[in-house]
Each structure stands twice: as C-alpha cells, then as structure tokens.
Amino acid sequence: MSQTPAVSQPPAAHAMEILVGYILQVGVLLSMALIAVGVAWRWLNTGNPGFDYTISGMNFFEFVLTDIQQMLAGTFRPRLFANLGIATLMLTPYVRVLASMLYFAFAERNRKYTVFTGFVFVVLTYSLFLR
Amino acid sequence: MSFLPLLLVSIAAGFVGAMSGMGGGVILIPALTLLGMDIKHAIAISVVSVIATSSGSASAYVRDGITNLKIGMFLEMFTIVGALVGAAITIVAAPRPLFFVFGIVLLSSWLALYLQRHEGWTPVAHQDAMSRWLQLEGSYYDQAAGQTISYRGARAYFGGPLMFGAGLIAGLLGIGAGALKVLIHDLVMGLPPKVSTTTSNLIIGVTALAGTSVYLAAGLIDPGLATPVILGIVVGAFFGTRLLVRLSNQAVRYFFLVVLAVLGIEMILRGLGGAI
C-alpha cells in the first residue's frame, strides 16, 4: 500500500470533476458546431446568413421535442440546426446539474449534496416548463 | 437587424469581455441597444450567450481541479432563484428603468476596476459550524506558486443570501454578474482568488440558464439575433482569453475605464429620458 499525501483529493472527487468538465466542453462545442452549420447552410441557400423566424408559444421541452420530431422525419434544413444548437447550449448546464446529482447520489453517496443539486435540478426543470 | 453587424459587435464584445475578465454581456447589451435593438431583446440574447462563454471557460478550470464544485452547487441554489425573479421583473418592466439600472451596474464596475485591490489572500482562521456542515473546503494545485493550497470557506449564511442578489442582477440585466459573485466569494466567504473566479464561472452558466428559460418562454429569444451573437461572442472570447492581457497593462486598463464610464453615463442618460 502506497501512502497518499494528506493534501490530495479523494479519487472519487476527481472523477466528478472530469465528468463535469467534459459535459461543459462537449456541450458548448457541439452547440457552436450546430449553429455554425445552420448559419452556413442558410447562407449558401439564400445568400443571407440571418434567420427570420421566432420561437414563441412553447416551453423548452416542446421546443426540443419539435426539433427531434423534425430530425426523425428527416426534414433537415438550416433552421433545424440553429434550433438544435440553441437547445444543446441550454441543455449543457442542465445535464451538468443532472450528472452531478446522480454522482452525489450513487457514487459519492453524499445525501446533503444530492438534496442540494436535486433542488437546483427541480427548479431548473420547472423554469424550462414555463411558457 | 442584419447578420454581419451583429456578428462583428459580438466578436468585439466577447474579445473585450474576456480580456478584461468582465464578461461579454456588460459591453454587448449597450452596444446592441446602440445598434437599435430593443433592450429586452438585447438582455435575452446576451443571457443565452453567457451560457456559452461561462461553460466554455469553466470546463478547463473544473478539470484542473481549481473550481470548488461543492461551494458552487451550494451557491447555485440561491443564484438560480434570484435569476428567475430578476428575469420575471425584466419581462414586465418598462425599458427606461432597465437602462438606468444597467448604467448603475456599469459605473459600479468602473469603480471596482478603478479601485482594483491587489491584496493577498488571508486564509479563514475560524470556520463557522454551518460552513463546516456544508463541507465548504478544498485544495488545489497552484501552478504559479508550485504548491497545493488548502482552504476553508466561511460565512455561508451570508454568502448564500447575497448570491440570491447576484443572481437577481444577472437575470434582470442578462449579464454574468461575475464581478459581484467573485466579490462575495472573496470578501464574505474567504476563498482564494483563483477558486473565487473559477467557481463563479461555474455558477454563471446555470444561473444564465434559469434566466434564459424565462426569456424563451416570453418569446424573446429570436434565433435571427441569437445565432450571430452566440457565434461572435464565443469566437471573440476565445481570442480574448488567449491574449491574456488581463489588465496588466496600464494603457489597457485606462481604455476599459473610459469605455465603462462612457457606456455607463450613456445608459443612465437614456434611462432618464434620452432616446431608447
């Protein structure tokens, strides 16, 4: 058994940091790529990279669901990529909170912080249902 | 509003925001309103782009083990509720008070930058029972000092409620309000500067999401405006971070002082009766 220095973090805490770090990085990069594809495609099609539609009358989950339905139906168009990019961006911190909650609950078994992250998750879920 | 001016203004705002450490929103929103955008749309678009810039920079710090996830997640409980309240106020508010409050925040940032403290960090000598119960402590490897720094956070009972206020301002004005969060971490909770700034970055992303959800529900997230702004601000922030000037240069600092003062006074005048 090798002796670990007193200052080092427990390995469990480090795994969580790697998980959270990658969720944030992948989320932002994916979202940027989707938006860039949407903008570039619209530019090539119409000569104008700017979109002229609005997102209104629906909550975030309806917004995501509409995008997924279009994706499954195979109706790919620039607007869908822009929407998926915005949705991915909004999902990034949301998934980060969900992953932290599950990590605190099952890997670290830290009841206090499972409750804290659970509270954040519930409030965010509520706010994403607003319309 | 056409794509190219939006993209260019956002690149500039992201660049200046990252270089100064103030974040993009503080520059972006006044600039967008000068381009003729209505202030509520500018706030809504800015808050979405804040998710991108904060999450992007937070990811590296989290993996380096500098960010304190527990302190961040405890304080997020307060900032997200504040952001929901702040964004709800903006939805029903008249434009003029928003210009006025924004101007006040800009002038406060001016004051913070002008008085910029360079005091060293004093570790917390006595940790209160609540902060101990909350496990507000940690350690990180400081590359510049070449050693591991251990620290404890204190006064969570003040820090939490104050973070509600920081979240409120973030949601109300569509900015990260990072300077305010860092101030609470430093002065109230006694965290080392690096932990303060990186943990604030983590909190900003989730807080901005809470604000964004309210603006999305209100139909204020217009993809035609959001796409160039998100792309521009991320690209600008990417290059701004890599320049790493970070106000070490006096000329750069004076430049920001002038920019903040001009924008702050301009926003207050518009709040008091100028063109909006």
Keywords for this entry:
heterodimer; A: 131 residues; mainly alpha; 4 helices; elongated; B: 276 residues; two-stranded antiparallel ribbon; 2 strands; 72% helix
Write the layout of secondary structure elements.
The complex is a heterodimer of chains A (131) and B (276).
Chain A: H1 11-46, H2 60-72, H3 78-107, H4 111-128
Chain B: H1 3-20, H2 25-34, H3 39-63, H4 69-92, H5 95-114, H6 129-133, E1 137-142, E2 147-152, H7 156-173, H8 178-188, H9 193-217, H10 223-243, H11 250-272
Helix pairs in contact in B: 1-2, 1-10, 2-3, 3-9, 3-10, 4-7, 4-9, 5-11, 7-8, 7-9, 8-9
Number of helices of chain A: 4
- Structural class by sheet pairing and helices of chain B: mainly alpha
Radius of gyration of chain B: 18 Å
Mean of all residue-level pLDDT scores of chain B: 89
Largest sheet of chain B: 2 strands, antiparallel
H-E order of chain A:
HHHH
Brief overview:
Chain A contains 4 helices and no strands.
Walkthrough of the structure:
Chain A is an all-alpha fold and 131 residues long. The radius of gyration of chain A is 19 Å and the shape is elongated. Mean pLDDT of chain A is 88; it is low at 1-11. Chain A has helices at 11-46, 60-72, 78-107, 111-128. The longest helix of chain A is centred in the N-terminal third of the chain and has 36 residues, at 11-46. Helices cover 74% and strands 0% of the residues of chain A. Chain B is mainly alpha-helical and 276 residues long. Chain B contains 11 helices and 2 strands; from the N terminus they run ααααααββααααα. Chain B has a two-stranded antiparallel sheet. In chain B, a hairpin with a 4-residue loop joins β1 and β2 (147-152). In chain B, α1 (3-20) runs antiparallel to α2 (25-34), α2 (25-34) runs antiparallel to α3 (39-63) and α5 (95-114) runs antiparallel to α11 (250-272). The radius of gyration of chain B is 18 Å and the shape is globular.
